[in-house]
Specification:
The protein has two domains: 8-125 and 292-311, NAD(P)-binding Rossmann-like Domain (Rossmann fold), CATH 3.40.50.720; 128-290 and 323-334, Dihydrodipicolinate Reductase, domain 2. The relative contact order is 0.16. Helix 4 packs antiparallel against helix 10 and helix 6 (162-178) crosses helix 10 (315-334). By secondary structure, it is of the alpha/beta class. It has ten helices and 14 strands.
């Protein structure tokens, strides 16, 4: 168990939208004492530091010796350089997704973490969504996964496309469910507004036979974040946005299937008045509605306080998601619209 009443000196690099959210969480967590905000933009950094009554630094190197854990919420292109300074000084880091600007840089971060025996977590906060947490407790063996993540254009994260901005959340969840090596990726997409893809659909085939179909768009008219999972044990339909889900278990519906087969065997049974959902035993997923970023930060900090624990998403898992995302982007280039 984590050490009781132990507080870690925490800091955040990046005073943008996500940095603000992380600051709010870390300021309240009992395991954390938020001591610093770092950002190259002084106005933003000083404003956030003042709000949470902590120090401001413009240079990440000034954090060394003053902190026990750092959350990196800066632009993706700076992740490696920032992480290298901290990890080489054996300061654990939580890096906002994606892990790095490329899998090559991601592998360097993973190697640094091993070399300096330092914890690196990745901020795939959707893994901490209470719906996903509830699904993971079921320990199902997925055979087919369909994920949809669409939303209106947010006018942020314009330095990356929809795959690294949005789809990577579902990629991480899919990899955790499939638990198998990827053998094939096919994808199609298009950029509409900027230089990067705004819409993408990908089909991922795994060595164990599991198949995933995943769609992401940041040009939609409404927000939808859903996943459906087919397995031998159950069928799940989950809504990340509404934080709700239903599960239809195989063993709980044997009698319904048996009844239908028996009636079909009769040859003359009239099914017109039968409503299939009425025959099924459908359960609402038991969801503990906790704030995903709080779960994420608690997991990260507790893994520092207790070396028997691990972060919710490790650097290796973050790298796997990044490598899959790159395979999707490679397929996009091989299937151009024009």
């Amino acid at each position: 168990m984590p050490q009781q009443n132990k507080q870690l000196r925490t800091a955040i690099i990046g005073a943008g939208k996500m940095g603000n959210i992380h600051a709010k969480v870390l300021y309240k967590l009992p395991q954390s004492r938020l001591v610093a905000i770092a950002d190259v933009q002084q106005d933003k950094g000083k404003k956030l530091a003042k709000e949470y009554k902590c120090e401001y630094f413009s240079d990440v190197r000034d954090l060394v010796g003053k902190v026990d854990a750092v959350t990196i919420s800066a632009p993706t292109k700076s992740h490696l350089a920032l992480a290298e300074v901290l990890i080489s000084n054996r300061i654990p880091v939580l890096i906002e997704k994606p892990l790095a600007a490329s899998s090559q840089e991601g592998r360097k971060i993973v190697a640094l973490a091993k070399e300096y025996n330092t914890i690196v977590a990745v901020g795939h906060s959707e893994r901490c969504n209470p719906v996903v947490q509830a699904m993971q407790r079921l320990k199902i063996e997925a055979k087919f996964i369909e994920a949809t993540r669409i939303s209106p254009y947010s006018f942020r994260s314009t330095d990356i496309g929809v795959v690294l901005d949005m789809m990577i959340h579902d990629i991480d969840i899919i990899l955790a469910l499939a638990q198998s090596k990827i053998v094939k990726v096919d994808a199609a997409g298009v950029n509409v507004i900027g230089d990067y893809e705004d819409i993408c659909n990908a089909r991922i085939v795994f060595a164990n036979g599991c198949i995933a179909n995943v769609t992401a768009s940041r040009l939609a008219l409404k927000t939808v974040r859903k996943i459906r999972v087919f397995s031998r044990q159950a069928y799940l339909s989950l809504d990340f946005f509404k934080k709700e889900g239903v599960i239809i278990k195989t063993d709980g519906n044997i009698d319904a299937v048996k009844w239908v087969k028996e009636k079909q065997a009769q040859g003359d049974f009239d099914f017109t008045g039968v409503n299939w959902p009425d025959l099924l035993h459908i359960e609402q997923l038991d969801i503990d509605d906790r704030e995903p970023l709080r779960v994420e930060q608690e997991s990260f900090l507790n893994s520092i306080l207790d070396n028997s624990l691990r972060p919710e998403v490790t650097a290796e898992e973050g790298l796997a998601a990044l490598e899959c995302a790159e395979a999707i982007l490679k397929s996009l280039k091989e299937h151009p619209w024009d």
